[in-house]
Structure formats: structure tokens, C-alpha cells
Design a protein that fits this description.
Structural class: mainly beta
Number of helices: 2
Radius of gyration: 13 Å
Helix content: 10-25%
Largest sheet: 5 strands, mixed
């Protein structure tokens, strides 16, 4: 289950999972499509909240988050990383 305030942080950018069309937990790797203006950005998840959906549903002042850092395509697993919408 994804809550409205579940978020990802990539560098200085923070956005909600729902804005990216993603579900909780967020994927371990993502490809950010820069639409040809810059090379696509590959990121890997460094850490994320381990609060379960059940526990989170009972909390009113808590948001779950995941932090990503840039990585090279060589760091990716064999499968294609998820591309946010």
C-alpha cells in the first residue's frame, strides 16, 4: 500500500511515490528518462523506511521515505530498472 506522503529523495530532489506512479516499497533501481536533453540517470536505493503498511496506517505524523544515489549502468542487475512515469 502506498500512502500519499511516501516519498523518494534523489540528491536534493524529494517527490512523492504517487507523483512518480510508483508503489511502496520503491524499486531498488530506477532509470530517470531525461527525454534526450541529457543522458538518462540511473539511481540505486541506498536505504528506505522499514515501517510496514499496518504500522504506518496507525501513525499520523510519520512519512516513509527512500534515498537514492546515482549509479552507473554497470552497477545494475541484469533486469531493466523501473522507469518512473
Amino acid at each position: 500500500m502506498t500512502f500519499d506522503d511516501d516519498f523518494v529523495k534523489i540528491g536534493m530532489v524529494r517527490t512523492s511515490l504517487k507523483a512518480l506512479g510508483l508503489e511502496w516499497p520503491p524499486p531498488p533501481f530506477m532509470r530517470i528518462d531525461n527525454h534526450g536533453e541529457l543522458p538518462d540517470l540511473y539511481v540505486k536505493r541506498m536505504r528506505y523506511s522499514e515501517i510496514t503498511d499496518e504500522h504506518r496506517s496507525k501513525m499520523t505524523h510519520v512519512a516513509r521515505g527512500a534515498e537514492y544515489v546515482p549509479c552507473s549502468p554497470a552497477d545494475l542487475p541484469h533486469e531493466e530498472p523501473i522507469e518512473p512515469q
